[in-house]
Amino acid sequence: MITERPGLLDEIRDRFAHVEACPFEGPRIFFENAGGALRLKSVIETSAAYAGYPDNQGRDNLASATLMAAIDKGRTDMRAFLNAPGGQVFVGESGTEVLFRLIRTAALGAAEGGVMLGSTLEHPASRSAMARWAEVTGRPHVLAVHDDATGTVSLTEYVRHITPEVRVATIVQTSPVTGMSTDFPAIAAAICDKAPDAFIIIDGIQHASHGRIDCAAYGADGYAVSPYKVFSRHGYGVGWASDRLSACTNEQIVGGPENAWEMGTRDAGAYATFSDVVDYFDWLGAQVSDATDRRARIEAAGEAIHDHEARLIGAMLHGTGNLRGLAEMEGVTLIGGDATEGREGVVSLTLDGMSPGDLVAFLRDEGIRVHIRKNDHYCGNILGPLGLDACIRVSICHYNTEAEVARFLAAMEAARGKAAA
């Protein structure tokens, strides 16, 4: 849909900063989006403006009222983006901190006993929080095991562990290492069926830049987003908590609002920059659809993003023009297989005869920015079972082009030649 309208991809790219060149190293293709997406130019401008405002919220002056209006708009926009008409939306320190707080509140608010259920596919943000609060509350932390070959964890595997004893469950929507999504709506439904009182928390951090979030349809109690991975900036996280979870005892100033999730004075610029993100989805949705409703335009933008990225991932894995795809290149091993269905923006790989660190450096010299992922506390859950010390992660977003994918594939062929020499 994006490429079907002449000039639209150029318009999209023009709304982002540093699309074609690094401000430090010069021209390059940015395939490190899973580590932090490109920033909207509007986000940069808004951040600078709000950083300069000296006024605080809750004062009797126009400046204060303007800040509070930006916060109110930000919350409204968060609800539209997440499709979360109920519950509470809030800003935290980071996506990781938001997950920790959602999980902590659920663990302390759930009925006593039982187990806490997650999976080995999860990012340590949720898995570590679950391990911590399982230990504190004296519950076993049960893990559904992901499949190395497919790079995801199946509904069947989750169902093996779902019993009425589940008190808190976590689901990662998309793995930031394999790029493969889970059938999280079906997993959440299975949990609700057997353990209706369980709290369900979804890690949407890797997924968010790829659009199509619908908290109202998930049957979950918490959702977390890292805005710097969805075209905004570092320094804050966005969370949603259901009415049921918000009714649990929460950390708050004595005498403060009982169901509020925020403490202290939050940065009004965080809300304003998230509004910039939602405004961008709204704008894009208007370019690819005739929808008149804001939420409908956001959904249309998500569909367009998904379709465009699926084409790019297909080209990367299976080739474009006269260039072979990664799946056809001898010596290339794909983490989680070569499936395009269910893959969101990420391809991780190794190359025989060249270390991941050397491959990252080779591609950098070819003008292509990718990232190494190591068998450490962030990625050991995926790489350890495969016996890998490291891999490289290539991650795209909807502002990337098929021409950029072609340049990457040509560079990989050159890397193969160098590795074989």
Order of helices and strands: HEEEHHEHEHEHEHEHEEHHHEEHEEHEH
Unreliable spans are none
Shape: globular
Strand order of the largest sheet: 4-10-9-8-7-5-6
- CATH architecture annotation of the largest domain: 3-Layer(aba) Sandwich
Q: How many E-type strands?
A: 15
Give the tally of structural domains.
Answer: 2
By CATH, the superfamily of the largest domain comes out as Type I PLP-dependent aspartate aminotransferase-like (Major domain)
Protein name: Cysteine desulfurase SufS
EC number: 2.8.1.7
InterPro entries: Aminotrans_V_dom (IPR000192), PyrdxlP-dep_Trfase (IPR015424), PyrdxlP-dep_Trfase_major (IPR015421), PyrdxlP-dep_Trfase_small (IPR015422)
Pfam families: Aminotran_5
Name its key features.
PyrdxlP-dep_Trfase; four-stranded antiparallel β-sheet; globular; pyridoxal phosphate; seven-stranded mixed β-sheet; PyrdxlP-dep_Trfase_small; 14 helices; Aspartate Aminotransferase, domain 1; 421 residues; single chain; Aspartate Aminotransferase, domain 2; alpha/beta; Cysteine desulfurase SufS; transferase
